[in-house]
Amino acid sequence: MTTLAPEAGTAAGTARPDTLPATVRPDLPAVRPLVVTGHGVVSAAGYGLAPLGDLLAGGGPGHTGPQGPDAADYPPIAVRSVPGFRLADHLGRKGTRNLDRLTGLGLVACKEALLGLADAGAAVSEEESGRTGVVMATNTGSVQSLSDLARDTLVQDAPYMVNPGRFPNTVMNCLAGQMAIRYGLRGLNATVAGGRLSGLFAFRHARIALDQGRAERLLVGGTEELSAPAAWAWHRTGALSERGAVGEGSALFMVEDAERAAARGHTPLAELLACEVGFYGAGAGRHSLASGLAACVERALVRSGVTAAHIGTVALGATHHVGLERIEERAVRAVLGAVPGAVRIADALGETYSAAGAFQVAAVLAGWRREPAAAGTVPRVALVTSVGQDGNAGALVLRDVPRG
């Protein structure tokens, strides 16, 4: 059981005992490894893992400046946008006229993931499409589409004189449905909403679905778009520090059972081990949220069959979040003793909120791909963590697969 020391400045007479709420059992059942066999990434760094790895290695921010005709409507806040993104450039004009930016970013990431699988000889066949599905992370879907629809009901001559073709964009599972329709993914189709934890919730949902045999392969990830309404929300709430920026993009991964992937001859990029999440109370205090995240990390390590000494990289999710940043790092240090190889994806891509967990995974894979481990070496292990103001916390363990 990890003990958290009281924070500096806490009065000794008023501090509660800084211990975890419950002992983490050492006999928790181990998880079966899942493997990542494909990826599609669209971010302020560009397209794919390679430019993301280069950006993180260089230490600079991704493309800056808002995009589109409403660029002048943004508040005085830093943004990280996907440079020059036009959906028609990637998918053509047919069937894309009424799709919003969020859906477009996700569809392009999906296309990149599926093309990569085809190039690697692991394409989704017609026979497999019925057992291949989608698990998408979101919070509200497209804030821009919701805002546009609400505005149109007020400024049009009559409330019902809105463009009906744009209404589907206001439904939070629009992107997951469009992916299934456009690319013939006829298996399980789920959209998971959970604020900052949405990405980790999506990976956990995918693990449960695969373990229960509800699908054989799942595209898992998250997507967020930049918009003036969302940027104003971040600016007005003050949730981000002055150094924080707001970002956008999509990160998707094809995930499948390790044994099944090996039987098909699919080459894994990495292993997804345990993903542990928990809710520690709405408006959770520093103590309960830090202790909760520490408990999640400990459970994830035990169920993954690794120890703190194995962790060489920690991808942090609460970078630049007022209050949460300290809570997250405090919990990680309580379990690991330090924050080894810290990766702060928000420094490069900005705050991507519900897609942050997917981008943290992308950041780890981009770093491993940029500097491949030699064959025969001990596989590298990374930890992905996340906390939210709503009281949710979670941790995911990744393991590298050295190239032969």
From TrEMBL:
Ranges where the Beta-ketoacyl synthase-like N-terminal domain occurs: 32-241
| Region of interest called Disordered, as start-end residue ranges on this chain | 1-22
Task: Kindly indicate where the leader peptide sits in this chain.
Answer: none
An example Pfam family from this entry, by short name, is: ketoacyl-synt
- Keywords from the UniProt entry: Acyltransferase, Transferase
* InterPro entries (alphabetical): Beta-ketoacyl_synthase, Ketoacyl_synth_N, Thiolase-like
Protein name from the UniProt record:
Beta-ketoacyl synthase N-terminal-like domain-containing protein
What is the native source organism of this protein? Answer: Streptomyces lavendulocolor
